[in-house]
Design a protein that fits this description.
Helix 1 (3-10) crosses helix 2 (21-38). This protein has helices spanning 3-10, 21-38. The protein has one domain (3-42). It contains two helices and no strands. By secondary structure, it is mostly helical.
Length: 43
């Protein structure tokens, strides 16, 4: 999953905008890592 795609998905969460910029960056990285490593069906 690309970073841009992850942001488009995560931006729908009401919690996303309550996070600091660094927390958002970490969330996006973790989300991309989780989606890329644990879901071969979605690739």
């Amino acid at each position: 999953m690309k970073t841009r795609d992850a942001i488009h998905i995560l931006i729908l969460s009401p919690i996303y905008f309550r996070l600091t910029l660094l927390q958002r960056l970490q969330l996006v990285r973790e989300y991309c890592q989780a989606m890329n490593s644990n879901s071969p069906v979605l690739r």
